[in-house]
Structures are given as structure tokens and as C-alpha cells.
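I am hoping you can look over what I have pasted underneath with an eye to the fold:
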Amino acid sequence: MDQQKSISQPKRRETESDKEEDEDVDVGQLAESLKFVGISPNKSDDGKPPASGTSQHLSGGREKGKDELPSNQSSQPSTSEQPGPSGAEGGHDQQDRQNPKIKFLIQVPMWVPVPDKEHPKKNIMSQCQRLLDLLQDTGFNEEDRGHLEDVAIIIGLNGKHDPKLSGILEQLQKIKEKAKLKFEKVSFTWGPGGNIPYNREAVPYSRIREHLKNCEETKKLVRKLRGNDEECLVYFSFVDADTVDFNEVYSSYLQIVDTHVNTHKIPPTVMSTGYEFLEKEFQLASQIDREVRIRTADCFPLGTYYPEPNFCVLLPKAEETLPESFINTHSKAENMESPTLIRQVKKRSDIPFTALFPRGQPIITAVPPGIKLKKGEVTTQCHHDPFIWATSAYTHGELKYEPARGPKRFYNIRAYLMRLLTCDDEEFKKRCGEFSFTGPGVEQLKAAAQAWREYRRTLETGMKKVTEKGERTQPPEE
């Protein structure tokens, strides 16, 4: 498999905390403590991902900066049923089953730099073919390879407007890639003089995704996917260009949707299996992150962050693209794309809204620049960190806080939620009985906070056993 470094959209940190950095983690010690609590690495001894269908994937997601809270608080209750582990074993013959066919429209924004020493032109020109080959080789397990006919991918080649870049984009558009699946390429620029007007220094992440979602090429691919099958389920799958292994994630999604339809008679609206980092020193930390998200979502489906590099949204049957927007009209911020979209999606009236974050196969991705470890956690995104967990718990508008207005409101809410995780058991019980929150997520929040506390204790017990005794023991019963 070609694992050359991908030319992906420039990354920025998920949450910029004002807390001081702790010392870097001892990765070896962390590995031993995680074995104690039953978490295995996401790579085998030869450095390759384990075979699909295993229980080794307890991974973490990576998404854009969480530096604001939603202004839109209205919502309807969401369901919390999880379909259970989804290893996608045995394949899925959609012709023989009664459920609607499941199809995927994959959206990938791909940043294109002006060639230089760090970004050779040869690498830039080969990125689309690399991604197409990767999807064909690793998107499904062997039994499900026939489902490639039910997949389409659109690659959004983009960069900051520059006369030199225009020529590169034109050359990329002319390249004729080879692929067995349906695909389209579009190119556009952003910034002064670009296709997306933008006068700030930061990358306009939300506008890039919005532009790609709404372009005519996206709608064309949706029409091709549907064909004459008006009953098929089309999911918009959002993926980043720095994916290094799709890890048969779409076989997982097939099983997740099938299981939910068979159990609840409706398809899930939003779903994610997250992703794991490729680099060895970050693998275990990303597994802790994802395990926290899974446990949180099991209690409180919209109480965690659904990562932009791997999440799916069901397309309404009458639409050729998602009618909801990535752009937050109440804020100038260009991050938080996923929750901005989901806060609108959950208001749909066609079918009951359901969000799932189960233990399916995660996508494998590269660690973005600037990410560091502290206490075994990815500092800017790990939901094992109370700061990050508290921010995500509020981000989808499932909680209302009194007073509804006032100075430092965001910080007061986050501080309250953080304290809910870190206080002693007696104070936790008292706080749960004196909530200042209302809304559909209140009882779910209590259960999710308790799950976080229990998992943290499990991890701390494992680390303590390894540190004090220098040996592995049997994990504690939960």
C-alpha cells in the first residue's frame, strides 16, 4: 500500500486550552497500562493495521477547533440506541436482502499548495490517483468489494488564491485518473480574488466544505448513484485527504445501517466510527480518545464530537445534496463544521433523528502538525481531558443553561461540566440533583458523565498497577 504523505487541507488544533502543558508521556508505560484495561494497539508487530473484524479498534477522532458554543439551542430528543460492535464480517449481499440499498457519496477537500521543496510537483500531481487507489483497495473487506459500484467520490482541489496555483489546478483537472468507481474532481480557490471570497488569514474550512457539498458535480454524482432506485439510502461521507488507510470502514457502515434498520425500522441519520492515528506514539492515545467518545455517545448520542475526517449524514430522499449548511451564520468562526451541520440535521421532520458512534472500523490517518502528548492524551482533542469532553457535551445544543445570557457564559458552562467530571462522588451526586441545565440531554448527560468517571478510574487503576508493581495483572471487573 502506498503510504506517502498526503497533501491534505492545512490542519489547526481542535481546542486551544489555556492550561499549561504537562510533561510528555512515557509511551511504553502507557502501552502497558492500556493492556491492563483491555485496549490493544491498532497495528500489529509489522506495523500494519490488524485485519478487519477484530476487536482491536478502540480509536480516537480528530476534528477542527472547538472554541465556541452554539447559539441555536432548539432541538428534539435524539435516540441513543447503538447497533453494537460492527466488524462487518461475512459481507453484505444487498440484492438478496429486503433492506434498501446503502450507497455513499464521499466528499474529500484536498488542499493543493504551490510546488516547492516540501511539496514536490510530482507528489501533488499524484494525490488524486493515490486517494482513488486507496479507497478501492481498503474501503471494503473482500466480501463487500462489489459495493464499489455503490460508491462515488468527489475531490475538491483547493488552495488560497494565487496566480501560480491556478495553473497547477488546471493541470490537475486535466489528469485522467483510472478508477473502477464513480468520481469527479472540482477545483476552486479561496481568499481575495478566489471562488470563495474570504478576507481573513485562517483557512475557511466550513466554506470549503459548503462549496464542495453544493457544487453541481456533487449533485451529478448523487443522480448517478440513485439511478432509478428511489428507495436507496445515500449517505454523504466526509473524509480528509490525509487518510492513509480506509480500513474497510464502509463494510462497517453497511453493517451498522443494516443492524439499525432491522432493529429500529429506520436508518441512522448521523454516524461515525472515528479514526486512529498512524504514527506509533499516538496510536494508543487516540484509542483512549475514541473509547471515551463511544462510551459517551452510548449514553448521550449528541454529547460528543463527530469528527470531520470520518462521519456520515443521511441524504433526504427528495434532495440532491444536504439542505443543511456547514456555515454558522451566528459566528465568524470557520471551524466546528460537524456540529454546525448536525444542529440543523437533527431538526429534520421526515424520520426520527438518530446519531451513532459505535465500535466499527475506524479510518487510519496521519497525525496533523503541532499535536503533542500529555499524560498519554492528544492534548488538543482527547475526550479523556475534561476540558475537551465538556466542550463537546454542549456543542450540539442538547443542553440549555440558565442564565441564558451573560458575560463569560461559555466559560461558566464549561467549568461546571468539567467539575462534574473531576469532583468526588459525594459532590457529583449533589450536582446531579441540582442541575442548572434543561433540555433533552439532561438525563443523558448525567449518565455520560458517570461513564466518563468510571472509565477514568479504570485507566488510572491500570496505570497505577503498572507503575507500582512493574507487572501486568488482571484488569479490574467493571
